[in-house]
Structures are given as C-alpha cells and as structure tokens.
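Possible regression after last week's pipeline update?

I re-ran a chain I had predicted before the update to compare outputs. Posting the input and the new output here so someone can diff against the archived version. Not blocking, just want to make sure nothing changed silently.
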Amino acid sequence: MRLNERIQIVNHNPKWKQDYADEIEGLKKKTFLSTLTYEHIGSTSIPNIKAKPVIDIIIGINSFPPEKGIIKDLEESEYTYMKEMSVLDRLYFIKRELKNFNVHIISYEGNVWNHDILFRDYMISHPDEAQEYSSLKENILSDGVETLLEYLEKKVDFIMKIYEKM
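New output (post-update):
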C-alpha cells in the first residue's frame, strides 16, 4: 500500500453518508470495536463540496495505546495499519477496495477528536467557507499536485484559519 498515494477529487456523493453507516455497522460486529465511538469526518461528511472519494472515520478510545484487539479487528476487516503515517495521538488505517476508507484511532473527546468534529461542524454550518475550501482543493490539483502529502500540505493554511474561527 502506498503511503503517498495519488489523489483525485470528485463532486459530493450523497451515498457517502450511507457508506459510512454501512461500514460502521460491519465494524461494530467485531468484539473489540463493538463498544467504541465513531464519527464521520473529512470532506465526505460535508455536503456539497468536492472531496477525495475516501471516507474518513475517527474511532474514539479512552487511552493510548489501544488494546491489541482493536488493531487486530481492523486488520481482519481488511484495513491496513499505516504505522509510518501514525503519530503519538493518532493511529492510521486504510482500506482501498470498491469503497475507500481511512480510520483514525484517537482519544475520545481529546484535542484531535474535538478539532476534527469542530472543523466538520463549522464547515457544515458555514457553506460559503465550505465552498471556498472546495475551490481551494480544485486549485491545488489544477496547479499540478497529484500526491496526498503535497495536497495535505497545501491545505494546511486554510485549515488553520478555520481553526482560529472555531
């Protein structure tokens, strides 16, 4: 699995909300994942903006490191543990199939959790800024950016401006 995968953005797909719900339903059938808290974040959770066709899910846990059973359950659910992309307060997993998902294991109601939720909710309640974010992403790609890490880097300033408003 490539760490710095090639990216594309597409128009918002209303089915992403149901794809998220279906994925969570499957994950909750696993022993260690059954009682955890899940949220749909990222651009696929914000109506009417362009997004990478990858659904981002945060899973809240009470303390780090997570139980080994959580990682095992995700791997058994066809997720690849991206250790090199994980950081002290976020473990990162990807699933690339017919439908694509990113899972981030983070502390429930910790700083990362709260920022992810606040950003999503802010963008939903401020559609003009959400459209500005969508346009920025289109401009990044039209400037020739094709890979995930460079794409993420080009969005940081905008995201930080939104964080200051939240």
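Follow-up from reviewer: compared with the archived run. The two ends are 35 Å apart (CA to CA). Marking as no regression found.
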